[in-house]
Amino acid sequence: xxxxxxxxxxxxxxxxxxxxxxxxxxxxxxxxxKVGTAYEDVSLDKMTETYNKxxxxxxxxxxxxxxxxGCGIAPLEGESETICELQKMYFLPEARGIGxxxxxxxxxxxxxxxxxxxxCYLETLPFMVGAQKLYKKVGFEPLxxxxxxxxxxxxxxxxxxxx
Length: 163
Description:
The protein has four helices and seven strands. By secondary structure, the chain is of the alpha+beta class. It has one domain (3-117): Gcn5-related N-acetyltransferase (GNAT) (Aminopeptidase), CATH 3.40.630. The protein is globular.
């Protein structure tokens, strides 16, 4: 795959169906729990509307008109206004291992600083080892307990980065 055709941009209404399909396909591919995870979030089918609010943004990775991944930033529900959450970061296999995840996190964290957040929280599944390595590489540190009220009780790896 040529990286020359890869574009990262904010989500648009026309992207809703594709990004929902990408996220769900990653859960199926990894045989990940569908209950207590982003898989069953009602926002999945209306991502543009969900992230079209203050201090929220969602970005998609596009390769030749095909969405191959995405990631967003939003206030962490049930926590201080200074803490945001890195949300719904999922990539198709063809988008992995080529630096797109690193670039996507960078874009999201810059946006978080722009919004005035001091810290960024995330949660993931224990077997998503590649993602955890990336999170640690960009400065996220493991936590002993969850923060906020995400509803994702199946995600039991929690991390935080001070911005």
